Structure prediction request, 226 residues.
Amino acid sequence: DGGITQSPKYLFRKEGQNVTLSCEQNLNHDAMYWYRQDPGQGLRLIYYSQIVNDFQKGDIAEGYSVSREKKESFPLTVTSAQKNPTAFYLCASSIFSNQPQHFGDGTRLSIL
Amino acid sequence: KQEVTQIPAALSVPEGENLVLNCSFTDSAIYNLQWFRQDPGKGLTSLLLIQSSQREQTSGRLNASLDKSSGRSTLYIAASQPGDSATYLCAGSIYNNAGNMLTFGGGTRLMVKP
Prediction:
């Protein structure tokens, strides 16, 4: 089955630690996105990538970093510079950047 | 910058009732409008997508409309069922050189009581 896989489902971060969230898709989509969702709120765009080896900052990129070395993978690193990382993180992809986005099941990040 | 607002934030209805969820957006140069469903702790499932040239889309008991001039979209759910309980999010899309950027509303949390 084609889809988007996010792992892990739950992640805990210690103070001063960087953590990496995985997002893999086998839909052969060019564009991939990372969103953050806080309780009771909509999604906010962190980073997006329209094509391999290219990515752009979204609305709330500070404290985060990404890479896009392979078409199917778009990992997100939450760095120690992100002072309020507790949130639900969602990854999405679309065949092209102007097509509907498909979402993974998310990773919930908490602080220890 | 596009802003998207959803009212109400929460809604509780008895089973069988028809209901309307509202979404408003500030930029009429919208490329498309998408409605999503989100179950607790899960990702988003796309329900309906309305292109800017369209007025409405239907899928089963769901009907979504788009009025660009007034900056509004509605999601109509007919004969609601307990299984419809979820959070419903709308997202407006602006297409520019950066691609298809979605701006999300805060969502409406729907509970359908048996």
Summary: The CA atoms of residues 3 and 80 of chain A lie 30 Å apart. The two ends of chain A are 35 Å apart (CA to CA). Chain A has a mean pLDDT of 92. Chain A is about 0% helix and 50% strand.
